[in-house]
Amino acid sequence: MAELRPSGAPGPTAPPAPGPTAPPAFASLFPPGLHAIYGECRRLYPDQPNPLQVTAIVKYWLGGPDPLDYVSMYRNVGSPSANIPEHWHYISFGLSDLYGDNRVHE
């Protein structure tokens, strides 16, 4: 459980997650909005390919109550020189057209 805490030692590394460098056939499985967000997260946090993530059981576009499809959590070690303490970086997925097909917004 220590690897889940911001001050804990990093956990084991996993194989690279799909992102901008993924083979085209595999990358096409990811909708454009998700692909863009995952790619940027991989760039910012290359050592965290499998972050903590929560998801809505029933997506908003399927009649669920939560407009966020996912929330990912990344450990950020901060920057002592910039006076930024260690913290968790929460990335929300939703409130936009993640899938590129207007299922949430026309």
TrEMBL record:
Residues 64-102 form the Suppressor of fused-like domain. Residues 1-23 are annotated as: Disordered. Pfam families: SUFU (PF05076). InterPro entries: SUFU-like_domain, SUFU_N, Suppressor_of_fused, Suppressor_of_fused_euk. Residues 12-23 have a biased composition (Pro residues). One of its GO terms (cellular component) is cytoplasm. This is Suppressor of fused-like domain-containing protein. It comes from Eschrichtius robustus (California gray whale).
